[in-house]
Amino acid sequence: MAEVVIYRYGHRPSRDKRITTHVALTSRAMGADYMMVDTGDRALEENIKSVNRNFGGEFKVETGVSLNTFLNNITKEDTLIHLTMYGQPVEDRISEIKKKLNEDGRIFIFVGAEKVPGIIYSKSNFNISITNQPISEVSALGLFLDRLKDGKELDLRLKGRLDILPQERGKNIEFYPDSKDCMEILLRHKCNEKLIEHSIAVQEVAMNICAGIKCDKRIVNAASLLHDVGRTVDNGVKHSYEGYIICKREKISDKVSSAVLKHTGAGITREESKKLFLPDLDYMPETLEEKIVACADNLIKGDERVDIFDQIKRYEEKGLKEPAGRILELYKFISQEAGFDINLIEI
Ligand code: SAM
Asked: Counting CB atoms within 10 angstroms of each CB, which of 31, 55, 211, 267 has the fewest?
């Protein structure tokens, strides 16, 4: 699949700050891979980085790429498309352009801000208009990308720390804290160094496990880092419940807080939870992400990787035969999902 790269010409940071940002946002959301801007603008680059952090993806903006550098970088395999009201109607040439998507070269889309030099009209493989009326570069680009991708860009699901859940009215946003957020939460709740080192070790194992598994890595990452945050309130068996409450208070997605609640051993059955006087909730991991976090925790003691069979033995020695059996089953299940023996993971 060809890379789709936008080149923004004539950007004046003082005047075009907003519109160039909108060119970048539109490109990013509609499935372009990369954007170059002729004038240097660090603020714009940082702004898009922060949008990626919040809403996902790795769309990059590189500023300070002069027109000459841009033109010299174009090879014979690449296609240069210039969006201009003076060009040919998009509907006349789009099927030809779409074929380029399946070829090796890159597709460069050139949009202007101020007067575009004549050389662009002659060097471009296609000068394309979205109506012959003057419209904004943002709408020209959005409509062109939509035609290029046949509307499929609307299905793009980027995953960042915020998920917007479509609503008929109002706003519904799910928060998936990234590693930086999790560290801030751990520190805010006064987790000591030992606890933080343990959490990082569990996270490392968990991310190793889920590298080859189709799952939501944001949940695994956050829940593995936060799984023991409740130990700052209760260092006994109730810590998973306390961690769950902290996650709720931090307005973290239920998918993460639930994995924190269910991480002990390979889960706690209803009967066991009653005997342990735990609040009446479900402590058994159900989702793949919940199971990965619980399993990763079983592979770590302090900040050291421990053999799963030693861990199981420790449970048995404490008379916890059934939980030990569940840990073994969970370990086997996750190894099968991962496609390798997770007891071999080294950190
Ligand atoms: N005065 C500039 C010129 O002479 O090229 C046009 C400036 S216009 C505000 C900014 C950019 O929007 C253009 O360079 C072009 O890329 C895009 N644009 C505006 N209207 C367009 C249209 N009808 N079709 C395609 N692109 C258009």
From this structure: 211
